[in-house]
Amino acid sequence: MTNLNTQTTFVPGRLEQMSTRVAFFIAGFGIAAWAPLVPYAKARAGLDEGTLGLLLLCLGVGSILAMPMAGILATRFGCRRVAVGGTLLICAALPLLATVSSIPALIGALFMFGAGLGTVDSTVNLQAVIVERASGKTMMSGFHGLFSLGGIVGAAGVSALLGFGVSPLGAMLVVVVLLLIALCKAAPHMLPYGSESSGPAFAVPHGIVLFIGGMCFIVFLAEGAALDWSAVFLAQERGIDTAYAGLGYAAFALTMTVGRLTGDAIVHRLGATRVLVFGGLTAAGGLFLATFAPSWELALVGYALLGAGCSNIVPVLYTAVGKQTVMPESVAVPAITTLGYAGILSGPAVIGFIAHGSSLSFAFGLMAVLLVAVAIGGKVLKV
User: Which residues form the Major facilitator superfamily (MFS) profile domain (predicted)?
Assistant: First the structure.
């Protein structure tokens, strides 16, 4: 049976919606499990900060190279096979990241890990677009909410295991078992095809897809800035104790997760355009408050507003990609996913470069202006 025939005789339903949620959880859980391992890998391999930073680029390169390939493979073999393959790559890489100590081995393991993450992330977003469209309901925020929830559970769970004295390898084996259990739950009901539209295997994003991708890039740029610079800013500029400097990102992550888990109802009630406009303005106001408020307490409120504002912008943009006809979704979805990843990976470097030439406050202020541009873009987009 051809790919097209499969699509015309099979309509995704509740089981496919469930599998999509579990797959998003897998993606968030998998990437977050690595974060607590970073200090262990650094110490085991005897790396300085500069070398570690260069090695971590291998993860990003693996992800970005895998994303467009995932779209091509999903079109040919279906979302199910590609997502399963990506998850197995993650499961193979995590124990290596917990044990290898040579730089070449770390490079290989990080590249493999990044490729697995990029494959899963791109494929589940493609499936989410198809499943949401078939349902006729707003579902994308809830899907992405499971990614955020998986991230919180993964980071907290692995940190707890390590805190209780479990070895890095032992913690990763627990993660792998949980990932495989989740995969067994999701895989039977993942889509056996990859796209409902035909087109070239690869194309440079253009038109409305490039516009949407640019908006995704800015939002992920802000997320990368919050992830890597909020603690530095609070400690350096607001005098908060280093042990509590992570509260800024915690506030951001919490409101983003809650916002996404409740986002489908919000999008249904307000409409996609208002979510983009109000979300962009809320995020910009939050980052402005976090940057220029005189106290760290108000700064935490600002980071919470930033997370709330950003929470549903990207899900709405993915829904918009599923509605456009300029590019086939098998190419368009990986394209905006890649642009988003480029934003979150380049965000810390861009902020650092601007801060070096001026100040961290100026860099964050410029990021707030870009988020206002996202709000304006939401008005122009008219989704």
Answer: 208-383
Which residues, in sequence order, are CB contacts of 312 under 8 Å at separation 6+?
141, 259, 260, 263, 266, 267, 275, 279
Q: Residue 129 sits in which domain range? A: 3-189
Tokens of 242: 């280093």
Long-range Cβ pairs for the range 213-216 (8 Å, 24+): 213/335, 213/336, 213/339, 213/340, 214/339, 214/377, 215/276, 215/313, 215/317, 215/374, 215/377, 215/378, 215/381, 216/314, 216/317, 216/336, 216/339, 216/340, 216/343
Same domain? 136 vs 231: no
CB 222 within 8 A of CB 373: no
Contacts of 263 (CB under 8 A, 6+ apart): 140, 141, 142, 144, 145, 275, 311, 312, 315
pTM to 2 decimals?
0.81
Q: Are residues 78 and 105 in the same domain?
A: yes
Verify that 214 and 144 share a domain, yes or no: no
> What interhelical angle do 103-135 and 329-357 show, nearest 10?
130
Q: Are 202 and 68 in contact (CB under 8 A)?
A: yes
Q: How far is CA 283 from CA 29, 128, 331, in A?
A: 25, 25, 29
> pLDDT digit string (tens) for 71-103?
889 888 999 999 999 999 999 999 999 999 999
Chain segment 64-75, per-residue pLDDT in tens: 899 888 988 988
Query: Is the domain of 223 the same as that of 109?
Result: no
Among the residue ranges 5-9, 164-168, 301-305, the one predicted with the least confidence is 5-9
Compute the distance between CA of residue 140 and CA of residue 133 in angstroms, rounded to an integer.
Answer: 10
- The percent of residues in the chain predicted with pLDDT above 70, rounded, is 93
Tell whether 216 and 352 lie within a shared domain. Answer: yes
Q: What angle do CA 59, 60, 66 make, to 5 degrees?
A: 95
Q: Judge if 119 and 214 occupy the same domain.
A: no
As given in the structure block, the two tokens for residue 115 are 């490729």
201/35 Cα distance (integer angstroms): 33
Answer whether 138's CB lies under 8 Å from 268's CB.
yes
Computed over its alpha carbons, how large is the radius of gyration of the chain? 20
Out of 140-154, 232-246, 279-293, pick the least confident.
232-246
Percentage helix, strand, coil for the chain under 3-state DSSP, each rounded to 5: 85, 0, 15
In a domain, 198, yes or no: no
